[in-house]
Write a structure and sequence with these properties.
Distance between the termini: 6 Å
Strand order of the largest sheet: 1-2
Number of domains: 1
Number of strands: 2
Number of helices: 5
Largest sheet: 2 strands, antiparallel
Shape: elongated
Strand content: under 5%
Order of helices and strands: EHHHHHE
């Protein structure tokens, strides 16, 4: 009978890959379908949809998918610091892409725009105010989100390469 032996390094790499992949999928789907779809709405519909989605996405599952990779990437760097330089560079670049391109871009780019939108009472705004708010929000938000999408996909790809390069011991 064969048994799989998974060490802490392997478990952390696999979990980082899984959660980063889920984040990359979320970003890709949002970039590919959600924002183009709601982008077709009139200003009130667009802004209201974005407000509701931003409010709904902050939940325990999203928090795990968003912040889990941050800690797992840092753990990977620590656990794999004595690996070959090729492996270490893959881990460092993957972590940097996720931390800078997803976490920091979200915190310093998307979140301030989300907060601007959230504090606006759309029902009290005039058509002109709605248009100004959308103009201030949409292009910048989408630009930041494209950075998150590309960064999360590249980070995920590097983790997949790492998974394929690691050898798991199978004992018979």
């Amino acid at each position: 009978m064969a048994t799989l032996n998974f060490d802490t390094q392997t478990i952390v790499v696999v979990l980082a890959t899984l959660l980063t992949g889920l984040m990359a999928g979320l970003c890709f789907t949002w970039n590919n379908a959600v924002t183009p779809g709601i982008g077709q709405l009139v200003d009130m519909g667009y802004l209201r949809s974005f407000q509701e989605m931003n409010r709904s996405i902050i939940n325990p599952t999203f928090i795990l998918i968003f912040f889990g990779p941050l800690f797992l990437h840092l753990a990977n760097v620590f656990l794999l610091k004595s690996s070959s330089s090729d492996i270490l560079w893959i881990v460092i670049i993957s972590a940097a892409l996720y931390i800078v391109g997803v976490v920091l871009v979200t915190i310093f780019g998307n979140v301030p725009l989300n907060e601007l939108l959230d504090k606006t009472d759309l029902m009290q705004a005039s058509a002109e105010e709605l248009q100004l708010l959308r103009d201030k929000f949409e292009v910048k938000w989408n630009r930041f989100h494209l950075i998150r999408t590309v960064s999360s996909i590249l980070s995920f790809l590097l983790l997949l390469i790492l998974c394929l390069s690691k050898t798991n011991t199978i004992t018979t």
